Amino acid sequence: QLEPVRQQVAGGADFAQAASRAGMSVQTPEPFARTEFIPSVGRGTALASAAFRLSPGGLEVVQVPPRGAYLVRLLSRTPVDETSFQSQSGQVAQQYLRQAQNDALQTWFAQIYKSAKIEDNRHHFYTF
Fold first, then answer.
1. Which of 45, 50, 81, 125 has its CA 20 to 30 A from that of 38?
2. Beta-strand relationship, 59-64 and 42-43
3. Whole-angstrom distance, CA of residue 14 vs CA of residue 126
4. What mean pLDDT value characterizes the chain?
5. What is the pLDDT of residues 71-116, one digit of tens each?
6. Which H or E element spans position 83?
7. pTM of the predicted model, to two decimals?
8. pLDDT exceeding 70 applies to what percent of the chain?
9. Which long-range contacts (CB under 8 A, 24 or more apart) does 19-26 make?
10. CA 88 to CA 14: how far, in whole Å?
11. Could you tell me which residues come within 8 angstroms of residue 7 by beta carbon, excluding any fewer than 6 positions away?
């Protein structure tokens, strides 16, 4: 069903008008990263992969089971800011290191607690 729309748009027809004539609607999501959630589609789908494969203005029909099929047109691509990435990579690495250390500590505490023989003697000290 999308192939005639794709051919019309590739031939120069307006995307929204071609979709409307076929009884379909056009949705334009906010800019997204490859791993981000795309409204009405999901996260990590073939649609996201197709969007990152296309060059600006490119069209592709994409199957996204069980949601259906989409005609994807890449409007623009925001290039990666290498200077920002370099300045933040150290902070992100430290954040992940702290998280891994906290996870390891919590796992260690859980193992100690599980193997410990704990006797509750609060009744000797408190009267309820």
1. 81
2. unpaired
3. 79
4. 87
5. 888 888 888 888 888 888 889 999 999 999 999 999 999 999 899 9
6. helix 82-115
7. 0.56
8. 99
9. 19/71
10. 41
11. none
